């Protein structure tokens, strides 16, 4: 009896292993250079009190990603495909331009983070940035989808460096747990701004496009959707566990000593006297890894999005001849961003502010389209949201849109 | 309705439509398309006025151009419109849809649709897939053209004529496929199978319904067995029967063997008697033996037949037979006594009987011979087909080289994993 029950479980595990990837990768890379900066800054300035924010963030992330993943599995199309087919060329074109600029900024931020972390190891950015750019270009243009996915999944494991540095910092766990489950709010502008920033950097437009496109490219079948869902949930949990440990590390070491930081690489440096050389190195390596991963995924998401909207061939599995536009968009984004990081005195900060501003404008559109599409019976058939789930989904979307609008306001009126 | 030359749909959208007195009837929102000969044509305009939708029949249109669209009737004569699902609408159903290029893998989206006045009708002549089409939709075609001119470049036109387009979306199923059928039939069945392997199941069924049964039969056999089965099960019974009848009996037998018993029975009953008998005989054999592979369509004449008469007979019989290179010689009990090639027959004097030129040292297989062995024998003796005979020497059928090739090298579209 027990054996019979066991066999399908092993089979299920195998199927699961073949399906995992898109959810974990998308969610992990969500902790990009700017995300890590936000968590580090939050931990250093306010200690443990931000930890509880991660719980609603995780829930919101799971709710949104699950809907997008479901659309990918059921329709076999990307989000941009569906938006173009259902909402026409005008809105798609507008989103395409905004997303292109925003993602260009995000890619540049990735290379900037990569350059900063390499310099911490004494490696010149004039060598490491071109090298990094060329490496990731080669990976996607020459590698197959499966190879790229495995490389990314392995790279995602490097995020666990943050967990180790969290333990090395030796926090008071009782205090950590209390802060995690008992919400504390400080009514001051910086605190509110950081709260919004934590949630805002977690849910971005490009993620939705990347997740759905990569699931569609992977061709996951309807009957295996439950595994895809598990992939998404695990990914979202891991992401926020990583964020949790970044905050814990900085809160344990930097906060009691009153060290204020503005950048993620400063956090890595500042850690050394309090948590030791290894913790500092782990922090720096993880930052380098997160940055370069962002520089792979964000251009990839952009290339997918634009090609889907225009109806061109797209996919990591294709080559320059089969999908020229896809490969050229990817190539151009990487090389222009890398070049920009190398030019001295380029106002990168302005570009990143513009990028987060544009992402903020785009997010409400993407979320509303996503939820409208997922509820469209003509597209999703029986897989539309259930009524109860829809309350949660709309609640999440409204919550995120409100936060985004406040964030936008704060960016415009500093 | 006066002739109006050529227009793009996007140039007409949101344009006001005026009645004979110059009153505003509403703005153009969409176009209902119906099938026409040879091109699909506009049957009505959908107008919007104050959030209500109206249907203005094409017959009532007076002037129709980029600047003015006028109606010959007053507001009272136009009916309100509720957007039923089964109408084919240009903006709703055709715009922005992904199309699989008839050339194969390349994909594009419909950016715009071109209309042309033919015999007082507005016919859909082409689909615009260029950047120009997008710019036109955005209302900045002229400006962009000027911008391009500054750089001494011109915006490319890229139109795909309607004949080359297969609107495959399920909502179009009933109307879309009559016209492009000829064009698609001109493609090789293997290419059609290639296109079919890339679209969803509903689209496949729609696609098949639009094909000529002969082409459908040939394309079907290029597909994976489970896809074949799914398509036949979804098709209307009459059309499915048509297709199965046109398939070589061996392939029909393979297909019916995969179907649920009920469905196979139903099809067999409606198929022409002699054809059904052939298929039934084949169904009795194991799939991977000579009996399972063989077809019972072949050319067989009696040894006394004069070559001249045989050639005349051949001209009639060869139409329905897959492989005609060998002429088998059988006696009155259908016992195989010899074989001759088409070449030998054509090159021999017409007055001698077939028995004079036939080869009597025969290479044959039994119905239960394993398919690998069959392939080995065919390959060893360089044959194009090999007869299958029973213990009494009666010819049951022949296994042809293309069936053997399918064992050694499955056709591309069958190997392709991708199933939607």
Describe this structure as you would to a colleague.
The complex is a heterodimer of chains A (414) and B (420). By secondary structure, chain A is mainly α. Helices cover 80% and strands 0% of the residues of chain A. In chain B, strands 2, 3, 4, 5, 6, 7, 8 and 9 form an 8-stranded mixed beta sheet that branches. Chain B has a 4-stranded antiparallel beta sheet with strand order 1-12-13-14. A 3-stranded mixed beta sheet of chain B has the order 15-16-17. Chain B is elongated and about 90 Å long. In chain B, 37% of the residues are buried. The C terminus of chain B is likely disordered. Chains A and B meet through α5 of A and β11 of B.
In short:
The complex is a heterodimer of chains A (414) and B (420). Chain A has helices spanning 2-19, 22-29, 33-46, 54-75, 79-120, 125-142, 145-157, 160-168, 173-181, 189-202, 205-218, 225-253, 264-275, 277-310, 324-342, 348-374, 377-380, 387-412. In chain A, helix 2 runs parallel beside helix 12.
The share of residues in extended strands of chain B comes to 15-25%
Helical content of chain B (DSSP H or I, runs of 4+): 25-40%
Strand percentage of chain A: under 5%
Number-wise, the strands of chain A total: 0
Q: Notable features of this structure?
A:
heterodimer, A: 414 residues, 18 helices, disordered N terminus, B: 420 residues, alpha+beta, 8-stranded mixed sheet, 4-stranded antiparallel sheet, 19 strands, 37% helix, 22% strand
